[in-house]
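Retro notes
What went well: the complex prediction finally ran end to end.
Inputs used:
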Amino acid sequence: DTGVSQNPRHKITKRGQNVTFRCDPISEHNRLYWYRQTLGQGPEFLTYFQNEAQLEKSRLLSDRFSAERPKGSFSTLEIQRTEQGDSAMYLCASSPSQNQPQHFGDGTRLSIL
Amino acid sequence: GEDVEQSLFLSVREGDSSVINCTYTDSSSTYLYWYKQEPGAGLQLLTYIFSNMDMKQDQRLTVLLNKKDKHLSLRIADTQTGDSAIYFCAESTGYQKVTFGTGTKLQVIP
């Protein structure tokens, strides 16, 4: 069990650029979640997958955001035309089933210049 | 909607017990969690409790749940400097999204 892995750890980009983050969940965890955490706040839910199916999306997930989990293993979160307000820590979590707690990765910190 | 509230800051002396409190609003919560976050890191699951339990103890950690008052607490016995971090209270209903509080920053004074 190597834990949830997220890449990159840090991303700095100019406003208007597109960015993509990757999350590798714990092996055999079929549920994968994305959260966003801004400074001084707790994480806020963005979306989650069961296997390759995206089952819920938060209203925080504007149309500039898209998440995929094509083979039911790793997931990507893409933000198009980044804005200053997108600066945050993006956290990924996974769980093996609906009755098990979520385990988090160390996150990707996004800074928009 | 769901809401989780906790105090922002707690300072204790090394060796004392720390008690971090949390209240939540969702009466359908089935799981309640405590996560720990150190600077620049992700969230570490410390412990969790099912809503049909009143208490759970795990080494230095004791979780108390008052479901009637929707109050959750985390007690850390013999607090060490390595316990300094932000502690998040969180709740979920089944497998759904986890709703977090704003976090309590625990400062342990040597």
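What we learned: The two ends of chain A are 36 Å apart (CA to CA).
What to try next: split runs per interface for comparison.
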